[in-house]
Amino acid sequence: MNVVIVGLGEMGASLACDLRKNPQIKLIGVDRDVASLAYARKTSLVDQTSQDLAEVATQADLIILATPVESIEQMIEQLGQLDLKTTVIITDAGSTKRAIMAQAQQFLLPKGITFIGGHAMAGSHLAGVQAAQMGMYRHAPYFLMPADEQAASRVDNLKVILAPTGANFITMSVDEHDDLMAVVSDNPHVIAFALMNSSVNDLGKSQDFGQYVAGGFKDMTRIAASDPQLWSDILLSNQGAILNNLTSFRQALDQFQRAIEDSDEETLLQLISRAQISRQNLLIKRENND
Amino acid sequence: MNVVIVGLGEMGASLACDLRKNPQIKLIGVDRDVASLAYARKTSLVDQTSQDLAEVATQADLIILATPVESIEQMIEQLGQLDLKTTVIITDAGSTKRAIMAQAQQFLLPKGITFIGGHAMAGSHLAGVQAAQMGMYRHAPYFLMPADEQAASRVDNLKVILAPTGANFITMSVDEHDDLMAVVSDNPHVIAFALMNSSVNDLGKSQDFGQYVAGGFKDMTRIAASDPQLWSDILLSNQGAILNNLTSFRQALDQFQRAIEDSDEETLLQLISRAQISRQNLLIKRENND
């Protein structure tokens, strides 16, 4: 079986490390960067490399697009124009899904090509082929979003091929995925950014008050150091779900504010207890992976 | 020199571990719990133990009150009625300071007794004498709040005695301390509680959506698992500063909300970049301790 991975960055190269474990898979790495391809060959990360997707796509049984979102969109259009195997599965690794699914709708589905959107919640702050890490996806949530019924019927095929990652595969619709991301990822970033900014407004430069903070503040603001362009793109690509969840967060915050204003200890105890129990239960099923 | 530590819980017992390093100090441990005192003697954590503060307080050169806040308040009243050494320094380890400082004002200052409020941002989720840990205070912010000018003139004496902790001592007023805590500790807790509660409102039980979350959400909600009674007490003891900072946080959140609503990428990039740089600078001076 021929698996083409486009983009040998941290996500794609780590996927290659895991898929190596299956001797039935021939791995073909595609990247614009010659040095990355040379490194991938030298370290036997893949069996074959190419700078040109068109050159290798037609032999592929599975094509994994693991580049930035804009580039994924362009490649979907390009792939729609090639003479691919009728049984090929195309998937991606983009963290925002709506635009990518729209491209698949326009360029792949009319030609009967199977597209299953993918989004794994894994990765570090590192980048590039040298950040490749075997087991990076282990136990990580890995969302699969089939573009149509035909794609839905082939999700199990994709899971079997990706099984060496050890990821926790979850199939859902794009809308469900985007609503979920608003709550568990997008808004936590917005809140961390806002907390960092308001703290600086109140206390002055962070290099001056940093000596006064403990683990709680550091944890709460860790993701505030995320990449501005990436997160601006993500937040603008999921506006509706984010704004809905922000309203919900503000309501929860209002409850605390009123209880503090009213010195209402009973309500405060209830609100904090609810949060405490929910947080304690959050990791019950996967305690060992925290 | 006789140092009395009242309360051999995690904070007091860990302090004892560090003060042991100074052979000039005779450590006297006071606790209501007989088993804790027996453990402290058996492990040579202290040189002498007592269940009765009054019995050992009059010989003390330094008294460290490391019990829950309410009990600290009661002991300050009790100490004001004893015939202490004129040179004694009394300090505490309570995380909320206003009520404690008011007690010192009422019962100690009129008798010329030196009181220096203390608050170390250290500790784990563990409790009790067996959680004692040498070096627990190392590099931790340790706030010292002298109750009057006489106390201010003796802060350096206290720092010399506590030096074996390796803590990062910072002298400030109670008001400065409470404003700072609102920003770096109290409101981060409120936000974590609210985020946990709104996520459950939007997604249902946490044991069901826990499998979908990544490190960012876990970090942002870790302190939401904090003790309800402790945090209800803290939030209600620092209402003014917390409500001020909540307003500031909401303004920062509003800026993000407007930029997302308006698809204003330029503003969003600026807001996120400001947060990113501030977070990167937060740990510049103490990177090694993160």
Automatic annotation (TrEMBL), chains A, B:
<keyword id="KW-0560">Oxidoreductase</keyword>
<dbReference type="InterPro" id="IPR050812">
    <property type="entry name" value="Preph/Arog_dehydrog"/>
</dbReference>
<dbReference type="InterPro" id="IPR003099">
    <property type="entry name" value="Prephen_DH"/>
</dbReference>
<comment type="similarity">
    <text>Belongs to the prephenate/arogenate dehydrogenase family.</text>
</comment>
<dbReference type="InterPro" id="IPR046826">
    <property type="entry name" value="PDH_N"/>
</dbReference>
<dbReference type="InterPro" id="IPR008927">
    <property type="entry name" value="6-PGluconate_DH-like_C_sf"/>
</dbReference>
<dbReference type="InterPro" id="IPR046825">
    <property type="entry name" value="PDH_C"/>
</dbReference>
<dbReference type="Pfam" id="PF20463">
    <property type="entry name" value="PDH_C"/>
</dbReference>
<dbReference type="GO" id="GO:0047794">
    <property type="term" value="F:cyclohexadienyl dehydrogenase activity"/>
</dbReference>
<dbReference type="InterPro" id="IPR036291">
    <property type="entry name" value="NAD(P)-bd_dom_sf"/>
</dbReference>
<dbReference type="Pfam" id="PF02153">
    <property type="entry name" value="PDH_N"/>
</dbReference>
<feature type="domain" description="Prephenate/arogenate dehydrogenase">
    <location>
        <begin position="1"/>
        <end position="290"/>
    </location>
</feature>
<protein>
    <submittedName>
        <fullName>Cyclohexadienyl dehydrogenase</fullName>
        <ecNumber>1.3.1.43</ecNumber>
    </submittedName>
</protein>
<comment type="pathway">
    <text>Amino-acid biosynthesis.</text>
</comment>
